[in-house]
Amino acid sequence: MSNFSYTFNALNLLTLLLIAPFSANAIEIQCLNHQPTLDSTTSTNDAEAQYRLGVAHDFGFCGKTDNSQAAKWYRQAAEQGHASAQYRVGLLYLKASGVDLDRQEALKWISLAANQGISGAQYVLAGMLMAGNGVERDAGKAAIWYERAVQAGNPWAELALGRMLQDGQGVQQDARHAIKLYEVAATQGLSDAMLALGMLYEFGAPEVPKSPGSAMQWHRRAADLGSAEAQYRIGLMHVMPHKGWAAMPNYAIAAEWYARAAEQGHVRAQVNLAQLLKDGMGVPRNESKAFQWQLLAAQQGDSVAQVNVAAAYAQGRGIDKNLEQAAKWLRSAALQGNAAAQWYLAGMYSNGQGIPRDPKQAEQWTRRAELESW
After folding, report:
1. What is the reported pTM?
2. What residues contact residue 229 under an 8 Å CB cut-off, 6+ apart?
3. Mean pLDDT to the nearest integer, 274-303
């Protein structure tokens, strides 16, 4: 089981991790000592100096961040073939930072940098190919570029290629090879790779049987590094004996792990923790706290939490009874296709509870609920 989406959620981190070697102190000194003559690099065509000035403006080493100036200096260096500058100006075009969004320019510069061996550029180019971002989607080519970045030791590429191997996207499915890549990335401290290992062992894959012990081991390592999803999964494994970890549910331990994930904004952990608090399972019963956790999840758009919040308002459990608020939250969930919310909302329209009575609306929501229930 893989819940991977090929996006650029790691770009900011990569910008910091995969930058070509430079000394921040040296750049700060350069800014302090040579600020009046910064433009001299234009006439001397010193690509390395131009690149370093781009870095200085990009990361605020000259006192403040100025992405438009960063783009200017990166581009001058990039046009002279400076690989790291090509990568960085490509990222700015991709993120619309200091320049207008231009995926074609981004693709051009990132491709040039990738062909010069910049592993960050190879990783980003693979992501663009995988997502069809500025270029026709091509999972096979994406895998090739991920592999090149893997050869350079890029942990994010190891994770991405591992997921492609696990799912058989653009490459022949090979979960055992995926495990090897995940393990290499995990040894570099990448918590997402640890989580991927935990998930693979939790659910199993072709030629890789389920292993609750291994799943818990990797989830725990990721959780200790702050992975909210891993924390949530540890909680889940303690209340679901069929996963093979615990012979009997341990709601107290589950609540501890749900709480860690919930505090980081993990929606399902918030919902599950709220349910334990509502029922007094593993924790003292506290309907007020239960409502607050459900509300946080509902505000993030979770339709199950929205139905639970509506129920709390309708029954006055953990919050003062308020049928108008109940109808509001039911409507939010119903618009997302939640059949239970649609049924309840139809009933409120039929009876005029919390909203004006409207038989036509009641009938429409009943029909939508019937369609969702099929």
Report:
1. 0.84
2. 195, 222, 261, 266
3. 98
